[in-house]
Amino acid sequence: MSDDVVEGVADELDDDEAPAPTAEDVLAYLVESLVDDPDSVEIDSVEGRRGVSLEVRVAAGDMGRVIGRRGRMANAIRTVVRAAAVKDGVATDVDFVD
Amino acid sequence: MEWVETTGRTLDEAKDAALDQLGVAAEDAEFDVVEEPRSGLFGRVRQEARVRARVRPTSPRPKTDRRDRKRRVPGTTAPTDAEAAGAEQQVEAEPVMGRARGGRRAAAPPPEPVPVDDLADELASDVIGEGAAADLDEVEPPPVKTGRGRGAERAPAAGPGRRAGRGGAEQHEVAANGAATRRRGADVETDEPTLAEQRETVKTFLEGLVDAFGATATTEVDEVDDDTLEARVVGDDLGLLIGPKGATLQAVQEISRTVVQRAAEPGRGARLRVDIGGYREHRREALGRFTRQVAEQVLDTGTAVALEAMSAPDRKVVHDTVNEIDGVVSSSEGDDPDRRVVISPE
Known about the structure:
The structure holds two protein chains of two kinds.
Chain A: E1 5-6, H1 21-34, E2 42-48, E3 51-57, H2 63-67, H3 72-88, E4 92-96
Helix pairs in contact in A: 1-3
Chain B: E1 4-8, H1 11-22, E2 29-35, E3 38-39, E4 45-47, E5 49-55, H2 64-72, H3 78-93, H4 99-106, H5 116-125, H6 130-139, H7 145-153, H8 168-187, H9 192-212, E6 217-225, E7 228-235, H10 239-242, H11 247-263, E8 271-276, H12 279-301, E9 305-309, H13 312-323, E10 328-333, E11 340-345
Parallel strand pairs in B: 7-8
Antiparallel strand pairs in B: 1-5, 2-5, 3-4, 6-7, 9-11, 10-11
Helix pairs in contact in B: 1-13, 3-4, 5-6, 6-8, 7-8, 9-11, 12-13
């Protein structure tokens, strides 16, 4: 189980520890592009039975932005992150945590 | 923007037909009902619904003339005549229900000569006339002599109040002028700076995304027209970013649009199309070829053929292609997302 927190795309990722480095990179990049407060974006990766779960936390005021109308943005983000996860060879899902 | 006019048995049908022609979703279109449908006995259609539609401009044009007309009604006597004429026409047009609107528009009172003072007043007070009001500011000597030049100079970026040491009144003036100029920049100068900025935003965003994917590609963004950007990401190994049936590409486009909208002033975001690895272009070409094949088949057999359900932009490709071929016509049936194009002999 790895719990490292990714803050920003520029941060170095330890490939040995992060189970889905590309997916995390892409997720961090997308979310930070959408929010007002990129510094508050936190991503935890949690390995579970069905692959890796990426948990996203953003500033309270930014949650709506990331999720979008009827969850459209959230779904679009999931789609792109899953595509990125193909490079990591693991199944991933994205959870937006309040 | 171009208006299209379509008919249908119901308003919805007419609107759907218009959306097909425009190739956009309902939320991006603007409708004008020209004629309400009227049904005769036993549901027979006596008059088809007729609508006018166009792609909704991202910043609706201010309805200045309508406002002015309303404003001018009380006061002078001359407009009353014009109004009366308008009313007369309106009554004439009334029995032909649907036409009433058109009639009224045609009967718009001729522009009244307005005394210059009033005009200036109106421009200055009218919210929509801001751009013009700013122009007037420049013609009149500015109350504080130094205010104008500086206001114009530092208008785009700097906020008011940067020069804290100045006298209060003068600073106010500067701020007001700055604001006026800034707004004019956005309203009157056809959005050029804003669009260029948005172009950069898209480019930077897509480049960053490709980078995060660990891929190498170049991104070009073209200004297709005043408010449309087309981004093309070209490179190798972009399959992941396209996804099955372009699903990932679609998601990338959606996120890019939101990023652009966020960067722009509210309501001023450009329309954006994103293509990755030439996917959309190839698809368009393939769809065009396929449509021509089907059209030939229809010409040979004389039997109409329904295509599978497609999105509005795809249907537009089909309609446009069929349009170029003599002897066949296309129409759409059903409701989104099951709406499909039917190609029939003429």
